[in-house]
Amino acid sequence: VWQSNTGGRGVSSAVLEDTGNLVLKNSSVSIWSTFENPTDTILSSQNFTTDNVLQSGLYSLALLGSGNLTLRWNDSIVYWNWGSNEFANTNLTSPSLGLQPIGILSIFDVRLSGAVIIAYSSDYAEGNDVFRFLKLDSDGNLRIYSSARNSVTSTVRWAAVGDQCQVFGYCGNMGICTYNDSSPICGCPSQNFDPIDPRDSRKGCKRKVGLENCPGNATMLQLDNANFLTYPPELASQVFFVGVSACRLNCLVGGSCVASTSFSDGTGLCYLKERGFVSGYHSAALPSTSFLKVCGPVLPNPSLSPSSPGAPPTLDTAKKKWMWPIIAVGAFFIILLSCSCFFKRRKLRMKGKTKATQKNTTTSTKYSKANNHKKDKKMSHELHLFSFESIAAATNNFAATNKLGEGGFGPVYKGKLLDGQEIAIKRLSRSSGQGLVEFKNEILLIAKLQHTNLVRLLGSCIHEEEKVLVYEYMPNKSLDFFLFDPSKKGLLKWRDRFNIIEGIAQGLLYLHKYSRLTVIHRDLKASNILLDEKMNPKISDFGMARIFGLNESEANTNRVVGTYGYMSPEYAMKGIVSMKTDVFSFGVLLLEIVSGKKNNRCYHSEHPLNLIGYAWELWKEGKSFELTDPTLEDSCTRSEILRCIHVGLLCVQDLAMDRPSMLDVVSMLANESLQLHAPKQPAFFIETGAPEAETVEKLENCSINKLSISVMEAR
């Protein structure tokens, strides 16, 4: 809806031009036009300048004189800001924003040598009869749409804010945004609140009892994995560096504070929200705890899923009914187990069964084969300390027929325990360079890494000068065994490959964010991805891994280890290690999985480009799908293939700061509704066939349970 306010100006005609511009004229003179006075939409060939503003409810889009493009809520909160890096050293004269007909959103200025691209639509350069437009929607997101000519439907091809819950005010004041599958939904923080409009959950929530009704007696409602969005200008005055308890207490005693958020991502940040508008976001992946001031008592948090379309979330009373019976039964079994343990320990003490020899992990006592299994012991974290005789029996005395391969730290064997369990055994050679203390410390360290997408260490054996590691056995060997073999790659259908991609991403996210230690793998590649009987991926070979301290985000190392082709440029050339080092390697691996090609090969007839360079050239030409492995022709989903290539190119961008985090990657892969930004030029080397740098594993032909362990560098 619009109005021209041209009354009394002699408007005598209206003309709708082929471009979509509606022009009001006085004779032949243009008095007013929709292109010069946009509402919420920009058409292709329409220029948007610093004099224009797109408006949709409380949301607005503006182009600043600096060239920055901003999305604002209520003309105050800036929740999206594009361009600060592009124009840092440039004074623009008269910048303008335009959407090209082929689907490229760009900023132009006479001082720029060319257009600065903001985004490509996901269908850019496709189709000759496609109508595209840019719109600021009522949910506060800026999107590119495309539609076939004469069609009444349109499709989203790009969104400025990839995560809709990050749009300030999306769920109204005191509302909490979360996701139901791939769709954002809104709800109230707890039963201390009521929806403002039961028919529209986006209008926010209100306290049942106002804070003015309990002066001095307020308490704090705790919301785990929640964040109260804080953007400029609030960032200037509401950010502090304190722990979670202080973050809660400071808000509780602060007269103007109504809510706070404490981050557990190592930054120590605490946001204190003052009286006014509070916009919440809840997700299991958020490393933050939020607190909301309420009049007590604190009531339970409802589940954040709607009971009906458009309705606010309600508490699942069925769960509440079962709560007390479950607690009672659980308490009974805990008491029963405690009594059992007490009497068992008492009986053992009376019989003198406690043996000091259990502390001696280096005993060289000779065991008979009949008693080998009984004499294996358990270490901490469910690791077993195997006797050397049981290891020898499991491998048929390390028979050559059981040998799976040879690595820099020694041979790997397949074995079978007396209970029938198949295992992979790495026998460290005497020249491996590891001493007893380092070996034992590393075992305890690896034991702390427990995830379904990491290969599992079952135990170890220390006997005189022998040091052995025991892992779960992977019957389908490693990813490279299938991926790069023309006769076997057809066995990896697209669904298998996509599951492998998601599994690797989940494993890396655990290492980077959710494990007890922050671990950078540094040697992620196809040969280090093992596959179980169901083709589930397991990240292996932590021999080059680097541990980061709590507040450490990157480090320099004088020892660059890894495999060329998978190493990020800042690591290969400067020795800079960070989580983005693994993100780069993941991007390379993702492109290899989609294409079935190795990165360190030449794939261009005119230029010696590796796989990354080849993928980039295809992307620029709008031919990304041509990268797809031909064996996937009958099993692939085109949209998933293109999305994976897009994510892969985002991961291999030249600058580490431009690459997404693994949390972002997991979200991109799982949520097709998230619109992806256009990738910048990747880091790729012209030279092909580069040698490996200090790779500690070179098993014969391909890696089979290729498991390598060495001392991790810690700071």
TrEMBL record:
One family name in Pfam for this protein: PK_Tyr_Ser-Thr
Ranges where the Protein kinase domain occurs: 398-674
SMART domains assigned to the protein according to its UniProt record, in alphabetical order: S_TKc
Enzyme class: transferase
Catalytic activity: L-threonyl-[protein] + ATP = O-phospho-L-threonyl-[protein] + ADP + H(+); L-seryl-[protein] + ATP = O-phospho-L-seryl-[protein] + ADP + H(+)
Region (Disordered), start-end ranges: 354-373
UniProt entry keywords in alphabetical sequence: ATP-binding, Cell membrane, Disulfide bond, Glycoprotein, Kinase, Lectin, Membrane, Nucleotide-binding, Receptor, Serine/threonine-protein kinase, Signal, Transferase, Transmembrane, Transmembrane helix
UniProt GO molecular function: ATP binding; carbohydrate binding; protein serine/threonine kinase activity
Topology relative to the membrane: Single-pass type I membrane protein
Domain Bulb-type lectin: 1-37, 39-157
Compositionally biased residues, Low complexity: 357-370
The enzyme's E.C. designation: 2.7.11.1
Transmembrane feature ranges: 322-343
Gene Ontology cellular-component annotations: plasma membrane
Subcellular location: Cell membrane
Gene Ontology process terms (BP): recognition of pollen
Keyword Membrane: yes
Alphabetical list of PANTHER family matching this protein: OS07G0535800 PROTEIN, RECEPTOR-LIKE SERINE/THREONINE-PROTEIN KINASE SD1-8
Protein name: non-specific serine/threonine protein kinase
Lineage of origin: Eukaryota, Viridiplantae, Streptophyta, Embryophyta, Tracheophyta
